[in-house]
Amino acid sequence: MGEAAEYFSKDFQWDDLRIRVENDPNLQYHLLPFEPSNSIPSVSPEADSNAWSRFHLRHSSGKFFKERRYLLKEFPELVSCKKYCKVLEVGCGNGSTVIPILRGNENIIIYACDCSTETLERAKGILNDAGFASLKDRFRPFYCDFSISKFPTWLACNSCRGNTFQQQRGFTTPENDGSPATGSLALEERGCCIGGVDFITLIFTLSAVPLQRMPASIRECFMVLKPGGLLLFRDYGLYDMTMLRFAQDQRVGFREYVRLDGTRSYFFCLNTLRDLFANAGFVELELEYCCVKSSNRRNGKTMERVWVHGKFQKPV
Hints:
Layout: H1 2-8, H2 14-22, H3 45-58, H4 71-74, H5 77-80, E1 85-90, H6 98-104, E2 108-114, H7 117-129, E3 139-143, H8 185-188, E4 197-203, H9 214-224, E5 225-236, H10 241-245, E6 251-253, E7 256-258, E8 264-266, H11 270-280, E9 283-295, E10 302-313
Parallel strand pairs: 1-2, 1-4, 2-3, 4-5
Antiparallel strand pairs: 5-10, 6-7, 7-8, 9-10
Helix pairs in contact: 9-11
Keywords: Methyltransferase, Transferase
Enzyme class: transferase
InterPro entries: METTL2/6/8-like (IPR026113), SAM-dependent_MTases_sf (IPR029063)
């Protein structure tokens, strides 16, 4: 419990941090409206994907990311869900989110996508190398960049998208008699699609998407989620330590920055997320800042981290 608690305890008040940041003359450039400069080149979606591919290649051992065990504490629905529950992990990276979910619930099947085929291969390798080979049958990776394209039709076909899903464990196919699948997932997947998913996990992924592409990306998540299904969200919050470390010339938008390696990051306030998800059709269940103090053992400095926790539901 100790390891999980450090991720969602309230070590300080976000409003106190906001006041300090907004009154610090050295940080004023973070607050200014963004005016595009001719010196800032436009970045293509392919360049974004390549930057993240190179990022994961540099950290291919998987040691850069810790296994996110806190997710099962923060999102207990992933533990208590029904048998053959389907989860879509968007932007799976090296599998640091996938592995604890698979370990925590033997009934879950995870469909995991990423914008890099090389990253997907490394995620599969880490799953095997870490001694979790027994979990690989419930791990279904596939390539997709949800910020520029739709999810594949085998995940949710055109006739199943929107509010037409039925909340059931199986669906009618030419090969069965119309009764729900009760044994093998293979039976359930013989139709035109798998019928959508029960959960979507969007963990430190949306912040890597350019702001102008976020509305369509969230809407795409909405379309493949079953009615009543949940989107579980965690990402960078406004005035997180990482944001305040960016230099002024790394700004590529309002609250949007690019790292030296080409990867980008947006820092969310609650109202921005509230509008994005409401406009896509979601109902907000939970949305709050997680404010955590962590210590750097090497230099003894305390870091103030701000993340956003959210749960959003597709109406039934």
